[in-house]
Amino acid sequence: MNQSTLSDAQKIYYTRQPKKRRSWVSFILTLIAMVLTAMAAYSMYRDPLFTSSFLNQAVNYHQFQHFTQQLGNQGLIDVSNFEEELSRLLSMINIFFVLCCVNITLAILTLVFNRTLLKILNFIVSLGVLLIPVILLFIIRDAATQLASALEPLQALVGNIEATSLLAESNAVHNAIIYTGIAAFLYLISLFFRNRKIGTRL
After folding, report:
1. Residues 67, 69, 75, CA angle at the centre, nearest 5°?
2. In the prediction, which pLDDT does 201 show?
């Protein structure tokens, strides 16, 4: 008798509070955005971060520290300001990897639990992920300017040196901006596709 009464109460509850059906459009958009974020992180890890025509070298994440040591070991010019810029660059890249991990984790939680709050938080994080490679562009260009200033005493020997030939952003930064930009846009669009209510049933 109690089971029958409980069953009737449950039916009344579900009649008043109809279930919601998952938005598959939002699910697919979130999944694609998550993959793009992972691709951006992989590109920043594997592809060249910047190139130096003057040193005839392309530098990826693994070669970053060795590149800094090469410049620090030479005694011809003072590159302390340039090394500070590279340290700032490395810190931003590490933050980028952390935010990508947070973004991917939130995306997985969104795919599983499908909560609007998770979508909003993930969109905010995705904006931070997008902002970092854009900032890296300015850091790399500023570092190139610092290095060009340090090389001014040697211009009589090597001639005029353009900052872009000393240091220029490469594939990893460009790819990260493209991938994270598209991902942030997809996360934004997914916010407009909410769960739909299923017709009331007894």
Report:
1. 115
2. 43
Whose tokens are 């069953």? That residue is 7
Q: For 6, how many CA atoms within 13 A lie in the half-sphere containing its CB?
A: 3
- The strand pairing partners of 20, in sequence order, are 197
Residue 127 near residue 184 (C-beta atoms within 8 A): yes
Q: Measuring CA to CA, which residue among 127, 123, 130 is closest to residue 175?
A: 130
Q: What is the pLDDT of residues 127-168, one digit of tens each?
A: 999 999 999 988 888 888 877 777 666 555 555 666 666 778
Strand partners, 1: none
